């Protein structure tokens, strides 16, 4: 069924409704097209990487003049007007709707909302991938794709593969040599690179420069590029794909997305003279056809943007989505008829006979065209390209909430408060999160990366953003200004940050070089950028950002940003199990700081791992509950040694955190180790030669064997009971604790004492028939009593225990009138 065009209205600001911009009817939409039977193209041409590299070596690549890749702007006769529903704010939801109920900390001294926690920008691998002297083109059209073990960079004029640590791999070739079999002897430009996690393939695209031109496609044979692996090459001529149209025109600025069903290619169309914008179109390529050798199957949707009014997504971008159960695809862009508006098209049945919706409009905070970007040392400013370009568009699922949302960013002119304003004097990076795409799209949140300086502000241009499966977002951009050479900036937000906020930017790569590669205004720069989510863990984020790596040279930097580590395991419920316990449920709760958290993925990714040290404890199932809680199924072997254990949690990205000892314990057997025997085995003998029986204390006046101390119970939870036996029948008994073991023994009355250091009198009891125990009845536990006496016992520490008791017989071993048991050590 046809879907009406829809536009998002700002609606009322305040209360819960202020968190969403609600769609309402607007202008008529282009009628829904389709369903169409896909057009049948040619079969693919397969070549090994070794063959491609041999062709590269055979081609004569003499020094060529630097060649500018033209970018034609989608100009329409009607000047866009500001959407009257767009709020003039730097972020959505606006500050006023969030400040209510948040207390005085909600606003800074300048009246601007604080930036929230921000994603901790821990940079891992960072390397220069491609630079000017490897290509004859300006600009590079910055991009790349991250696979399981490799990173494939495809810039204008150069395609290279690297290991994830930056080590060069087996592919390093010009774009023309790579696409030789399908480019029809015309240069290959405007590269795009994807790694399709669902099929385990790298997918590269480009266009050639004939009129009418081709869209070129290459698909790898697998997830790892080696000399013997291969690529299969396809093409379609843009005007031939059914329904045929846009005859003798040029498709420019191709931007692709890939999902479970299709490859989505969006482009702007120009007449044969390359002078006039004729509208925007998209092509849906059946993904299974290009994974199987062809023939390629494709469907064209022409005129999705009106060339006269600009209504619709100019620079339409195919939307990436790695959800294996997705059943519809999207193209997205900035609406060409009004500022403060995004436009989407929904593709139904993309893997079969596709059809397309009318325009789905989403109102955003106000926008305004970008300005030329000054840069330190540059005689001519840099080209910030076009505010109508969403540089990368990703639909991704937050695995903590289960919700999928679309993320995109573009460059606009803003003032010192981040609000889009003509004459604002700086370029800002505006980002968006959209939800409910399969029904009525809504703006969930939006923010702006900008410099608030009154003079010589930095500008942020060619921005891209993406969200990890944890819900954290990373934005990457080139930064430059009158005081800054072109460098790489990163900023991010945690899933828990207040909506619309962004952490302070980090200057990840600072340049000290002047960029004067062109003697014209503006100098070409960027055209594209990319943030990729690592397909192995859905946590690690990778930025592909352009910077000035040497005088008059562009460079594309690959920057890895690590996720926050796991939460620290702080407690387990139950805190202990006994040997032989099988398939027991244990809930582990952690503490989070700086965004740390547990995380799990699903089959096809690395998974959350949990282990318990010491041997004999196995975990047969792990259920991720939330960032601070996991549920384990635990089995304790019958031979497992009792005592405190540590719990180690390893997130899918390999980062691990280990708990303190004793968060979990194995019960079974006495929780103590006896020592300090008065049986003649210590270096210090009993004071009157009154040795007791093996393992006991020194002999006393009524028992030649001496008294014995033992313990029972568990240390976690603390149910330990100390039991003394073999004392005088009704002796007054004191239970003593020390934090030091004087292993040689000290003469102590008629006995020996090894418990030393900080001594605590825990309990005082009277023996009955020579025996007593503690704690009893309402007595506090040993750990509670110890803490109350100034010696808190931490998990993983040890304490030493003895009792001493009255033996008032003056004739026995004078002058002492008391004696002691052996000692026990308890490891808490």
Structural features, described:
This protein is mostly beta strands and 828 residues long. The protein is 4% helix and 43% strand. The protein has five helices and 59 strands. Strands 49, 52, 55, 57, 58 and 59 form a six-stranded antiparallel beta sheet that branches. A five-stranded antiparallel beta sheet has the order 3-20-19-18-17. The radius of gyration is 35 Å and the shape is elongated. Residues 1-31 and 98-114 have low confidence and may be disordered.
Give the biggest beta sheet. 6 strands, antiparallel
List segments where confidence is low: pLDDT < 50 over at least 5 consecutive residues: 1-31, 98-114
* Class by SSE composition: mainly beta
Proportion of strand residues: 35-45%
**Global geometry:** elongated
Q: Determine the mean pLDDT.
A: 91
Share of residues in helices: under 10%
Number of contiguous helices? 5
What is the gyration radius calculated from CA atoms? Answer: 35 Å
- Please give the number of β-strands: 59
Beginning-to-end CA distance, first to last residue: 68 Å
Outline the secondary-structure elements.
Blueprint: E1 6-9, E2 22-25, E3 39-40, E4 45-48, H1 49-58, E5 67-68, E6 81-82, H2 95-99, E7 122-131, E8 137-138, E9 145-146, E10 150-155, E11 158-163, E12 168-173, H3 175-178, E13 188-196, E14 201-208, E15 214-220, E16 230-237, E17 250-258, E18 262-270, E19 277-286, H4 287-291, E20 297-305, E21 313-318, E22 320-321, E23 328-335, E24 338-339, E25 341-348, E26 355-356, E27 360-363, E28 394-397, E29 404-414, E30 426-435, E31 442-449, E32 459-467, E33 473-481, E34 484-493, E35 506-509, E36 530-533, E37 541-550, E38 553-562, E39 568-573, E40 576-577, E41 584-591, E42 609-612, E43 617-626, E44 629-636, E45 643-645, E46 647-650, E47 656-658, E48 664-666, E49 673-675, E50 708-712, E51 721-725, E52 732-738, E53 740-748, E54 751-756, E55 760-766, E56 772-774, H5 782-788, E57 798-806, E58 818-820, E59 823-827
Parallel strand pairs: 5-8, 6-24, 22-28, 40-48
Antiparallel strand pairs: 1-2, 3-20, 4-16, 7-38, 9-10, 10-11, 11-12, 13-14, 14-15, 15-16, 17-18, 18-19, 19-20, 21-23, 23-25, 25-26, 25-27, 28-29, 29-30, 30-31, 32-33, 33-34, 34-35, 36-37, 37-38, 39-41, 41-44, 42-46, 43-44, 45-48, 46-47, 49-59, 50-51, 51-56, 52-55, 52-57, 53-54, 57-58, 57-59
